[in-house]
Every structure is written in structure tokens, then in C-alpha cells.
Amino acid sequence: MVAAQVVPRDAQYVLNMCTKYLARDNIDTRSNFGQYQPGDPRAAIAEAWRFPVIDSFWDGSPASSYPFDTVTFIWDGKRSPALSVDVTGTFTELYSPVPLTEVPYLGQPSGLWAVSVRVPKGQVHAYRYLVDGTARADPINPQMRELDNGEVWSRFFTSGCTIPLTLGYRERRVLDALVRHVLPFRIAENSRFVSDVYTKLDRAVRDAQFPLAYLMDEDVGATNYIDKLLARDEMHHAVDYHICLPMIDTLLRERLGGLDPLVGPVELWQDLYGELASNNVPGWDYNRYHDPSNFLALLRRHAITGAFVHPRRGGNSGAAGWEYLESRYVDNAGQTLFDWRRAIEAPLGHNTDYRG
Amino acid sequence: MADETFDVVAIGSGAGAAPLVHTLVNRGKHVLLLEKGPLLRTQGQDPSGLSDFKRDELFATGAAKIINVPNVANNGEPYYSSHVEPDLNDEPHVYKGEDGQDRATIEGYTAQLVGGGTQLYGGVSLRFTPDDLRLASFNAGRTDLLGDPNGDVLREARDWPISYNQLEPYYCTAERLVGINGTRGGQLKPASQDFYQPPLEPNAISGFAAAGMDALGMARYRTPLAVITRDHEPSGRTVPQDTDTIKTAFVNRYGDPLGLKSNTWVSLLWPIHNEPNFELRANCVVTHLTAQGATVNQVHYRDPMGNERTVTGRIIVVACSAIESVRLLKLSAAADPDFSRRIDANGLLGAYFLTHCFGGAQCQVPQRADKSKTLDSDWATDHCAHPDWIRSHGLWAGGAIYNNTSDGALPISLARTWAAMDMDNMWKGYLGDPSIVGNEFVSYLDANFGKRLSVAFMANQVPQRTNRIDLHPSVTDKWGRPVAYIEKTWHGHDRLLMETLAEQCHQILVHAGDTTDVSYGSVENSIVRIANHILGGTRFGSDPDDSVLDPNCRAWNFDNLYVTDGGFMPTSGGANPTLTIQANSFRVGDLLSARI
């Protein structure tokens, strides 16, 4: 761990990231979609998950910029007045505090405090603010975790993170099985393709392009994407997965007379899929989750997004989803008909005008 | 007293305000521009070297949120918006559905950031035809109009108070300063000068649309698009060495991190942003105006932290998109009877709200193309805007037809717009078809990825007084202000016109080669659809009893209040409106610079 590298971002940038979400008179809980406990003031903030702001990093060179993100910590002094604000956490050496500075507006302090730091992609960190010397969790960011000692810390994760954050091991395995059934990659030829994507590259190319790809599998990272989505942008849907995945696990196990459904026949999962679609799942506890087809819709939207999303979002691992389309669709001369690399930033893609 | 005073205070920074601001600043006027949304910069503009726009499909349509607006029928439904569209729970548009129930909608929002809707639009920059501006004269005495048993069309058609010839020089100005590529030959729109940059090679899939147009004898031209293809001297923008890389599918509904799409920020505001007589304040929402007699003397706004501030100008220009401009004026009127009497003496404020009759056809083509190498459209035809064609089909007005190329060009966008007619229905088509899974998913991709071709029409909508923008009686925004309430229907003649034009699009695809799965239709069964072409509600005219604005876009009973977004249009024109809004704003800029 090295000392935090502060990245200069101007006041306009910070204001751009704050006004729409934070500035308001109304404190109705309009942004509570079930993800907040009663009384949580975040319920009045639009898209509170956007804080701290995770953005790209640029130092002039694609190769040295790509492995990093810029993380901007923001303290809203209008909600919680302060004389000094620092941020400390696992992203910086020995938790050494990094001072936030007041963001000016029209020559006066705006009330916002901010600092941007460079953080490697693929990481999860805990942080707290030191407000006039007192440690406090981030009152905006909904991602929090309570440590063994009872302290509450805030959490953020950077692009391409593959560390499980929301779903337990067994939940992820069950989700894997469901996602594979939704996506096209389990078909034999496609499954071979996915493994080829990774193995055909020599190590140097692989490390430059996909330093974050961890698991080349038939789900091409969609399960990981969903885990990250539930940790942040769609935290309100985590409950759907926490209810439905164990329920599916249990009811399939019962159908197999106690055997592990993960090693069960593919028909088991196909049948389940049809039952979910028709909202008629024998063994389903409708009191706990009244609409299985709703869960299937959620799963399908998340799975296809996770398969083809920009890899910074944690899915499309190693850009395998895009490579699948790239290699499957070619013209008579063998030229691809999905040349995604020309628009996407290097080194992931080939474009050096666009920096990501 | 207001906190500060300027020559001109403009509210909004899109197609309606930026052109006149550009003009006035260059002529030495002291201008303040207030924009509700953020100032998202290009890579070249931002000191970090990064843009706030990304080539990332989730920037166009992001994570699911849930509608949480009391008393609307779609409360609890998910919605998906881009990062620069408003949060629907903070500031919904509410419309009255066919069933009489209110619903929140993302339709009718352009984009809230510096550059407004021009940041997210596809860039189609067509002129209107001369006849589009004189539809009352064009139709006078006709007895052959179909689908108009009550004579509404003849009664409600209006000539604009300015002619095409008066607007024409400003079309040229807009085309030169905004930065547009396209071709002129075959257009039905006379041009005294040609400032188009050359278009890039069309996408291969567009060859089918071209073939269909040719087979039907429809003169075609390369769709004028607000994307530069060569270095653009007026705005100082330069293009990549390999100009073919300008074509990416991250066009329509995406902001451009490189600034090649000619939004009003990069084309008109950035060139003046360092002028000492210009100030741009982003993240500042105007809440209401107050007046002393016939003079608007205070603009009340919230700064980026939500603090109340005021400012004034000798001239006040409202251009925050037709719906939001009407709302701002109505909010101001609600607080002051004299303001109300002046802005709405004839009860027309918010009335005659317009969008476009639109729709089209789509099909599967036999040869797959790489649709990720594209701008928004390649070929256009004015065939159905020709007076003889209009009359021979018993219609009151015509429209433009062009092919789309960026629709469904990327894998997620293909799925989320599958059989989804509008932004409120994102994902519903794909999710509603559970057969798209496993093997069938592969078949779905094989059949559709890079093989879907669509052709769209954009045509005049009959003005109806009952189509209107109002303040909602109970739903409020995050500042406690009533939100906009949209009531609109299609006229019977609109439906007939849409059927006729959809059939033309259908025929183009039928004649395009070995196309299959051809379907066609329009928005006739969906009253919420707006295409983000939000027009009318503050229409201009020469008769104070029949319009909200005078021919110069000044509110009739105010000395210094102007409205210059699409609200000024008394008819909606037979093409995408942005270029015409820009041309008119340049015209008003000329008038204002002579006045102050």
C-alpha cells in the first residue's frame, strides 16, 4: 500500500456529480425502493449509490491509466456542517487521512467538500470521514459494513471488481446455474469459444487487456455483474435474490431427493425456467415471493446486461461476450461484423482517441 | 432588487437558447446563461483529459429505479433513465392516459445538461419545407381532406408569422456554425448556401433502404446529421485522423466524449465560453420569474447547492424545452395575478402543445452488417413532403422519411428496445418473451443482430387546443413545485396520415430486396409518445388573440420576455425540429442584438 495519490478534479466536476442528487427541499422518501431501513435519510437522496464517485483515471497513457480508477469522496457540508473533513481508509497507506477541500462556487465556499484519489481497479475498500476530528461513516453512500468491533465503515469498490460483495457462495453457485441457462454460452460450440477467448491469447496480451478477468466461464462474468449491481446500483433488488436463490436451491434439492441440484441434469433447470416463466412453480413459497416470473424477468435483464456490458461494470469478463459476437458474425471475407474494438478505449479496445 | 444584472439572462442551453446567446455574446452583450443540469465536458475540454460521457451502454439507459410518485397509476413500476435525464421521483412529467388515469413518464424530457437535448439526440438536422410554414394557406379552400369530418384541420392550420425565405438565411447560419454533414441534392428545401460537410460512407445495411427508395422513385439524399466529419473552423473542433472511426453506435441517446456530435455546447457555447461578457452557470434551476408591470425584473433560481438566488436582465429568454418553459411560465403566473393576466390573457399558454406524427417500418435484411459503425441515419427522402403527393393522398401536410442505423446496434440496446415502443417500455418486449433463452437466444441473435433495418417518418401533427401542458394539481417536484401535466390525443387526421406514411415506409422495405419480417406502424395507439420533439404551447403568431408570442418570440404583454425553444411553433413541421429551433434562435438573436 502506498500513500494515496490525489488526482486534481475541478469544482465544476464535483458540482456536476452532486446537484441533481443532493440539492433539494423535499425530504420525502422518494428514493426508497425497499433498500433502506425506516428513518434512513438516504431515502430522500436520488441515486445515493453514486457516492463516492467512481470514474476513469487518465495520466496521458492508456497503458498506465487503464489499471486505475479515480474515486471522488464528497462530504455535503450543507447537510452536515464541518470545519475540516478528511477521509481515511484501506485505500491509503496506514489509513493516513487525506484532507478534503472546500469546493468553491462563485468565489464562496459552496458547502461541499471533496477530494479525488487514484485507486486500482478491481478493489474493495472501507473508509470513514474524520469530521472535525470525529470518525463518521459516509452519510450518503448506502454501502456500509459493521466491523467485528462494532464500528460502522462505508464501502466502495472500483471498476471490474470480482470480489463477492452481496451473494453468498451457495447463492452464487445457484445463480451461475440459472444465468448459464439464460445466456447462449452453455451450448457446446459457444462454451468452447469462451474458453478459447482466454487461452488463445498470449500472457502479455492477456495481462494488458484483461488484467481483471478472473473466471472464464459460461456465464462470462454475468453472475459477478449481478453481485456488483446488487451491492450498489440496484441494491433494492438484493432481497429478490436472497429470497429466491435459496428457495430454488431447496425446491430443486427436494425434487432430486436430497441430491445437489448443481450436479443435477440440465432438464431440471430447463423445467424450472419454464415454471418460473409461467408463474407456476411447484414447491414455491408464494407468501415469501409472490411472483416468480418477476424474478425471472429480473434475472434475464441482469444476465444479458452482465454478458454484454462494458467490462468495467464487472460483467462481460475479459470482453468474452463481445468477442463471442465478434467471432460469430463475420462476412464472406472473414471480416467481423461486430468490430467493438474500434470504438472502445485501449488497451481493452483499439481506440486511442477515446480514453474511457 | 436582484443580486446581479445582465443584458440578457437566458434560461436553458440547448437548441433554443444557445444560438442566440452565441450571437449576443459575439456582439458584445453581457449574457448570463442558467442551465438546470451539469456541464459535462469533452475529453479535450476537461482538465482531467477525461469526459463525463462514456462509451458504455449503461450510460444511455441505466440501472432500474422504481416510480415512487403518489397518485399515479404506474406507481411501483420500474423505469430506466440516462444519467442526464431527471430522476422521475424528483421531477416527473405526468400525462393523462387513454383510461383517464395519470401516469409518470420519462417521455418529453430531452436532457438536462449544458447543450440540452442536442447532447443526446441522433443529430438528424433536416430543414422544414416552405409549405410546412404556411399550412393554412396551403390548405385553404380544400375539400379533399380525409379523416376530418368536422373541419378541424382547416380551422386549426396556421401559417407561421414568418416565411421560409425569412428563416432561410438563419438555416444557413445554423448549418455553418453547428457543424452538419449531409448532401443537398434531392432535398425539397431550397438553400441559398451549402455549408454541409461531406458525409462518411454509409453503413452497408442502409443500402437496402436506398434500394427501396430508388425502386419507388423517391429522390434520396444523405441525411443531414449534426456530426462533424472534417475539422470545423467555426467551433475549433478537429476530427480523428481516421475519420471512419467517427462512426460508432454510441450516438443517439449518448453524449459524445470526443465532442464530434455537434451539440450546442461544443458548437456554440464552448467557442464563447472564455469571453468576459459571457457567464454560464450550470446546475442552476430557475424556479420562477417575477415582474413589475410589463417587465420581468427577477429570475429566481437555486444554485448548485439549492440556495435561493436572483438575477435580472434587460432581456429574459426562456428556452428550457416547450414543456418545462410552459411550466415555468405557469408557475410564475400562479404566484402573481398580474403576471398571469399578461402571459395568458387569451388562455392559450400551454395550449396547442405539439409533437410529431411518427412511426415507420422495420424488417430483417438478408445480409448482416456491422451496425456498430454508424451514425444515426444515412438516407432521407422528401418524397412525401411534395405538395402533389400530399394533395393526392388527401392529407394536410407531409413529412420526411429516413432510415435509422443506430437502433439496436449494440447487444444490450437490441434487447432493451426489443418490441419496446418508447422509453417507458424499455426492456418490456424482451422480458415479455421468455423464449429468448439458451439456444433460442442464439437464434435470436443470429436473426437480428446486425440485421434489423428500420425506416422512420416524421410528419406534422394537427394542432388541437385541447392538447396542452398544465400544472399538475397534486404532484410536486423536489422543490415543492407542481410538475408538468400533459394532456394530448391524436386527431383522426393524424391517424390517417400516420397510416399513410407508415405504408410508404413499409413499401420502401418491401422493395428493398430480399427483406423478411417486415412490420410497420406508428404511434397512433400511444398517446404518451412524444419522440422528445416537444413543440407548441407558447406558439407565435401575428394575432395577439391567437398566440402567446409575437412574431419575434416576445410574449405579447411583456416588454422583455422571450421564449425561443420549440414552444414557439404553431405547427410542428414535417421533420425533426432541432435545426429549425436553432435557426429561429439565431433569428431572434439578430433581433435582440439590434434591440439592446
* Structural class by secondary-structure content of chain A: alpha+beta
Q: If you average the pLDDT of chain B, what whole number results?
A: 96
Total strand count of chain B, please? Answer: 21
How many angstroms does the end-to-end distance of chain A come to? 25 Å
Structural class of the secondary structure composition of chain B? Answer: alpha+beta
Biggest sheet layout of chain B: 7 strands, mixed
Described by the principal axes of the CA atoms, the overall outline of chain B is: globular
Count of separate DSSP helical elements of chain A: 10
Give unreliable regions of chain A as ranges: none
How much of the sequence of chain A is in beta strands?
A: 15-25%
Helix percent band of chain A: 25-40%
Radius of gyration of chain A: 22 Å
Largest sheet of chain A: 6 strands, antiparallel
Rg on CA atoms of chain B, Å: 23 Å
What is the count of DSSP helices of chain B, taking H or I runs of 4+ residues? 15
Uncertain segments of chain B: none
General shape of chain A: globular
Assembly state of the chains shown: heterodimer
Biggest chain-to-chain interface with counts: A-B, 84 and 72 residues
Quote the beta fraction of chain B. 15-25%
Pattern of helices and strands of chain A = EHEHEEEEEEEEEHHHHHHHH
List keywords for this structure.
heterodimer; A: 356 residues; alpha+beta; six-stranded antiparallel beta sheet; five-stranded antiparallel beta sheet; 11 strands; B: 596 residues
Description:
The complex is a heterodimer of chains A (356) and B (596). Chain A has 356 residues and is α+β, with helices and mostly antiparallel strands. Chain A has helices at 11-22, 62-65, 169-182, 188-199, 203-209, 222-231, 238-255, 266-277, 292-308, 320-328; strands spanning 5-6, 53-56, 68-76, 85-89, 98-99, 101-105, 108-120, 124-131, 134-136, 144-146, 152-157. In chain A, the strands form two sheets. In chain A, strands 4, 5, 8, 9, 10 and 11 form a six-stranded antiparallel β-sheet that branches. In chain A, strands 1, 2, 3, 6 and 7 form a five-stranded antiparallel β-sheet that branches. In chain A, α3 (169-182) crosses α6 (222-231), α6 (222-231) crosses α9 (292-308) and α8 crosses α9. By secondary structure, chain B is α+β, with helices and mostly antiparallel strands. In chain B, the strands form five sheets. In chain B, strands 1, 2, 8, 9, 10, 11 and 21 form a seven-stranded mixed β-sheet that branches. A six-stranded antiparallel β-sheet of chain B has the order 7-14-15-16-13-19, with helices on one face. Chain B has a four-stranded mixed β-sheet with strand order 6-5-18-17. In chain B, β5 and β6 (102-105) form a beta hairpin. In chain B, α1 packs parallel to α15 and α6 (206-215) packs across α14. Chain B is globular. At the A-B interface, α1, β7, α8, α9 and α10 of A face β3, α11 and α13 of B.
